[in-house]
Amino acid sequence: MQYGPVMIDLEGKTLLPSEHALLAHPRVGGVIFFTRNYQDIAQLKALIIDVRAAAQKPLLLAVDHEGGQVWRFNEGFTKLPPAKHYGDLYQQDPVEALKRVRNAGWVMATELLDCGIDFSLAPVLDLEKGMSEVIGDRAFARDPQTVSELAKAFIQGMNAVGMSAMGKHFPGHGGCVPDSHIAKPVDDRTLEALLVDDLVPFANLSNILGAVMPAHITYPAVDTVPAGFSRRWLQDILRGQLAFKGAIISDCLSMKGAAIGGDFVVRAQMAIDAGCDMVILCQQTRDLVMWFLDNLGRDSTAESSQRLSNMAGQFQNEARKAKKPVVALV
Predict the structure, then answer these.
(1) Stretch 243-261: mean pLDDT, rounded?
(2) What is the percentage of the chain residues whose pLDDT exceeds 90?
(3) Handedness of CA 159, 173, 9, 42 (dihedral sign)
(4) Crossing angle between the packed helical segments 264-274 and 286-295, to the nearest 10 degrees
(5) For FRET with 77, which of 52, 186, 232, 269 sits at 20 to 30 Å CA-CA?
(6) CATH number of 72's domain
(7) Structural domain that includes position 223
(8) How many domains does the structure of the chain reveal?
């Protein structure tokens, strides 16, 4: 069976009757979890068992666990500092910073995989330029090579226990002020300028990233539509120029930056046609989500499903049992 092309959310800590039908829908291939879905580890594990039982098919389970302010599950999980913490340490002691950030990736992945979550939407590869309303300390640093080194170590920690990594937000959210959750950001830089700056971490890490999330940002010097809806960005540049072979998963279609005309079905069709293997739709009523799934008119290709399958968690039990010595996270 193939992975469906849509990732949805859930309303609470247990499944609603209507959510059983949503999860069983052939176009649903994933679930993204939020704080509202979490009480404690036992409850989360029980919910995940119910989710997979309702779906009865391949399903990717994801959560935003970057560290710092973007952290959905608290009690029972090791709280990681924001990425900038490691960037600041890197300036004083690069070796220690790389050790700690690798361990952070290892700890985060171990705890999530143990609960049945396949992957975290991490790491952030954006550059911190002191201007973005939404990135801030979520970025490792301003320098693209520093970001590349720290993100690589974080990914290595994730990979060591069987979790694939997702880099975001391609081609870079750090160069514009507005938050794409609530606005329609525009970055006027040329492709040439981006290639030697924001795109560097994506280029450096394209061979070890399991997935990339494109930004809901328009770069008019490159294309007239936001990156996540652009064949130019996703096919010509990401897959062609940067030789990325992993999955492309959209940011949420409910965000203001994704409002490029048409309803959610039109947005999803544009994103998939541009090259997204999976789209995310959350924060909507259960009835609307079912209408969306029924009317999407797009299913996963064999190639997309294969790329998505590589994001499924492969918990390396031996790595967990080894009880690798934990260096300080902060």
Answers:
(1) 87
(2) 82
(3) positive
(4) 50
(5) 52
(6) 3.20.20.300
(7) 6-314
(8) 1
Which tokens hold the place of 27?
């176009």
The predicted model scores a pTM of 0.94
Q: In angstroms, rounded to a whole number, what is the distance separating the alpha carbons of residues 220 and 186?
A: 7
Location of structure tokens 């790389």: 98
152: in domain: yes
Distances (CA, A) of 194 to 22, 116, 188, 250: 40, 37, 10, 20
With tokens 């779906």, the residue in question is 55
The answer to which of 28-42, 179-193, 221-235 has the lowest mean pLDDT is: 179-193
Q: What is the pLDDT of residues 201-229, one digit of tens each?
A: 999 999 999 999 999 899 999 999 999 99
Distance CA 327, CA 330 (A): 9
End-to-end CA distance of the chain: 43
Core vs surface per residue 292-327: b (16+ CB within 10 A) or e: bbeebebebeeebbebbeebbbebbeebbeeeeeee
Residue 76's region, left for phi above 0, alpha for psi from -120 to 50, else beta, is: left
